[in-house]
């Protein structure tokens, strides 16, 4: 089993895979969207769960479940994926076997995103969840990360976790300067769902957690802005922030 495990917490993000065809969303967001608010937090009172990440390296799909919950709570009505559905999605993309735990080898985020967009991921009910579009954001471009959270409801990020963060209680802030053990433990996928001037709020292992910007830019090795017509638009067809979703989508596809 390649997914590192410490005290009821698995990692499970493989090294980034780069594709020159991937949209560079940061540039589009900077041109197309208004000025970034000083703070925006979509994560308040969202009932995040562990989603099996205490038993398997399914962090990428726990992040998907966290984003769906965050988006739908803000836009239309909370949709919660079950742990079984999260593990089913992990199996769909990677070949993981939920019944035995075989092939628990983690996930390349770009593979997850392409499967989510093309084939769809499982969700409650009879429909599949299709991602409308996605684009890469340079993790050190904090303003672009903020825009992705503020106007699109969240960002999928990959980080390289130091051992010291795995030793913290769940929900305690991830601050590089507050730990002594910076030994690399492995890659991890997290859903960025809020921010303020000091840092970013994210879900990991079922806990809403905070990380200073200096820590995030230090440990993050990939980030993606996500456009989800299915989850981010309300019944009238508008997003909670009121931005023109179709115009933004057109800009992304033209980039």
What string, H for helix and E for strand, traces the elements in order? Answer: EEHEHHHEEEHEHEEEHEHH
> Roughly how much helix do the residues carry, as a percent range?
25-40%
The number of helical segments is 9
CATH architecture: Alpha-Beta Complex
Describe the main β-sheet briefly: 7 strands, antiparallel
Give the terminus-to-terminus CA distance.
39 Å
Description:
The protein is of the alpha+beta class and 255 residues long. The protein has a single domain, classed as Cysteine proteinases (Cathepsin B, Chain A). Helix content is 33%, strand content 22%. Strands 3, 6, 7, 8, 9, 10 and 11 form a seven-stranded antiparallel β-sheet that branches. Strands 1-2 form a two-stranded antiparallel ribbon. A two-stranded antiparallel sheet has the order 4-5. It is globular and about 45 Å long. The termini are far apart. The mean pLDDT is 92.
Structural topology:
Elements: E1 5-6, E2 9-10, H1 25-32, E3 40-41, H2 59-75, H3 83-94, H4 109-118, E4 121-122, E5 128-129, E6 133-136, H5 142-152, E7 155-162, H6 163-166, E8 184-196, E9 199-204, E10 207-212, H7 213-219, E11 220-227, H8 229-232, H9 245-254
Antiparallel strand pairs: 1-2, 3-8, 4-5, 6-11, 7-8, 7-11, 8-9, 9-10
Helix pairs in contact: 1-5, 2-3
Please give a quick description of this structure.
The protein is built from nine helices and eleven strands. It is an alpha+beta fold.
